[in-house]
Amino acid sequence: MRLTHTKKGRVAMVDISRKEDSSRTAVAEGKIILARETLSLIKKEKAKKGNVLATAQIAGIQAVKKTSEIIPLCHQIPLTNVSIDFQFLNNGIKCACIASAHYGTGVEMEALVGVSTALLTIWDMVKSAEKNEKGQYPKTRITGIRVKEKRKG
Question: Which of 15, 21, 85, 124 is labelled catalytic?
């Protein structure tokens, strides 16, 4: 079997074997823009698919745990804590994911995967309420996904 290489050489994980383990935490955030009627359904737990935020929270945590399977070249990290929190806004929901580990590399990708998956799960669970008569999503969008903070030590 012949492998294709980049101009700079082969593709490989970053070698962290010489790095000392330390406490690491990353906070990622993002938001989903939704119609007011949809936000009301979520608040009242009346969405057709069930409890939107509880499901999104579980999906986000599960995704964090599987980051190394989703993102090529990410290390498998022994997580010590993951949390997903939501805040209602006038026009949507803000989501924050906090991931922590005691390891030789950071947990930013885990936090980003968690917040992204939680927001995508919200969209999936309310898409029937968000569609217009043409089957499009004129208001719905995910935005502002970023690493808000990372800490080491």
Answer: 124
- Output the six-digit token pair for 2: 């012949």
* CB 76, CB 135: distance < 8 Å: no
Residue entry with tokens 């029937």: 128
Instruction: State the chain's mean pLDDT as an integer.
Output: 94
Q: Which CATH number fits domain 22-152: 3.30.70.640, 3.90.1300.10, 3.40.630.30, 3.30.43.10?
A: 3.30.70.640
Residue 101 burial (10 A CB sphere; 0-12, 13-18, 19+):
buried
Nearest-angstrom CA–CA distance, 127 and 139: 11
Tokens read off for 13:
């994980």
How does pLDDT run across 28-53, given as a tens digit for each residue? 999 999 999 999 999 999 999 999 99
Q: Model pTM?
A: 0.91
3-class SS at 133?
coil
Q: What is the mean pLDDT of residues 18-29?
A: 94
124 annotated active-site: yes
